[in-house]
Structure formats: structure tokens, C-alpha cells
Amino acid sequence: MKSANRSRVTEFILLGLSDQPEQQIIFFMVFLFMYTVTFVGNLVIISVTNADSRLHKPMYFFLAVFSLVDISFSSVTVPKILTNLLLERKSISFHGCITQLFFFMWFGSMEVLFLAVMAYDRYVAVCHPLHYTMIITKQVCLQLVVCSWVLSLLNALLHTAMTSQLTFCGPNIIHHFFCDIPPLLELSCSDTFINELVVFTEGGLVLLSPFFFIVLSYAQIISTILKIHSEEGRRRTFSTCSSHLVVAGLFYGTVLFMYFRPSSSFVLDYDRAVSVVYTILTPMLNPFIYTLRNKEMKDALVKVLRSRNR
Q1: Residue 269: pLDDT band with limits 50, 70, 90
Q2: What angle do CA 63, 64, 70 make, to 5 degrees?
Q3: pTM of the entire structure?
Q4: Backbone phi, psi, residue 262, to 5°
Q5: What does the alpha-carbon distance between residue 274 and residue 255 come to, in Å, rounded to a whole number?
Q6: pLDDT at residue 83 above 50?
């Protein structure tokens, strides 16, 4: 009853990464560069995999979809960050905040699930190569993509709906550069026990289940690679999986650090910097990791560039 008598918050103030005015333009230029590289780099991967018939394989189909998710994931937060860096009042409406949270949860969950899908593809390719074309068919590829999108959507709807039902009476300052569940729960004047319980149970299941699946898949992959007698064969086989392993390690390392540790260990400035890694830096690095460590991708990129220069 007390919370009902208090005025409801209609907007939030995002503190961003720094409150120093002289640093705003520097952050703007850095994030604009990173977002541009993310958008262009992932778009190049999508274009190259579509243009080169040699890349019309499940592995590269999944990579193209993952690049699309990377673009979407970055676009949820970075444009608003860039806008706020140019404005003195760094505000976001309540509905804008809830909308941003929904898409952040949707595409963030999609990143997590799709890393597991790509690990499954590599597991079948390395551990069951003779049955690969029978297991990873076009129909199975589409089913895996659709299931990942739907499960991610349902997860986002659940957490967004529960967060939107909370009451926010003030203060309205979010100590972050985007709307995320933990800072919003901290600001709410409602009882957030159920929300926190769902975050650590259902949210933990969505995040940790793919993580353990990836770990088990790569344990089997590495075990199979070690049984290959030829050193060249081991090197070639591992090179097809190493890019995905690097991306998964970078993404999961920062996400698990952020969401699965005691709240008493939170350090505001440090945690915001870590958030930059998985929300902005990782999507930017993914195109470089996949192209520079993959000979087929490099050859296809060179082929496409040469054909356009003629």
C-alpha cells in the first residue's frame, strides 16, 4: 500500500560509463568505431557465406545466423549509448527501458543457445563424420535455428513481463549504460524475491545448460582429435573448431563472471567495463576470429573481393 501511494517512475537516468564530460566524446568515437566494425564485419560474413557456393554448408549457415544475432545484439544497446553520450540528460523512458530489456534478453539468450547449436554441429562433424550429412540436414538446421529463436523469445518474454510488473517509486538512476535486470531489481520498491528466484533458476538453466553442453561437446571433440594419428590431421581438425571455442570462451567467461557471483563482490566501474566485453567487444571480434582462423572463409572473402574489383 505504501508503494501505491508514491509516484511511479516514468523514466530512468542511465549513468553510462563515465560522468566526466571530457571523456564523453572519446567514448562516443570508440563505441561508434566498434559498432561500425561489428555491423560491417558481421554483414560481410553473411554476404560472403551467401555469395560463395563452397560455403553453403551447415557450419557456415550457422555462422551467418550467428552474425545476424551479433548485429542485433549490439544494436540493442550501442545506438542508445551513442545518443546518451551526446546528450547532457541521459534518460530513457520506462517503456523504452522495458523494450530494451526485452530485446537484450532475446538476442542475449539467442547468443547463448546458438553457441550450443554450433558446438553440436562441430561435435557431429568431428566425432561422427561419416553420419554428418545424415544428421545435420537442411531440415535439422532450420529446426535448430527456429527452436533457438523461440526458446530465446519465451525466455525474454518471461523476464520482461515479470520486470514490467514491478513498481518503481524512485530513485530512478540506473548505474549502468543499458537496462538490465539486476540494476532494475535494485531500484524497485516492490518485493523482488520471485523475480530473483526466477533469474537464478530459469535464467540459470537457460545460461548454464548450453554452457555445460558446450563443455561436454568439446571434451568429446578434443578426445577424438587426440586419437588422430596424423599431426596434420589433428591440426586441420582442431582448426575447424578453435574459432568457435575462442568465441564461446570469451562470451561465457564474461557473462558467468557478471551474473554468477555474490552481489557483495560487485564493483560498479569494473562491472560496467566487463559488460562492455560481452555486449560490444565480443560481437565486434567474432568476424575477425572466424575469418582469420578459417582458411575457407579467407579464401571466399578474397574471391568475393576480386570478383567485385573486376
Answers
A1: low
A2: 85
A3: 0.88
A4: -60, 140
A5: 9
A6: yes
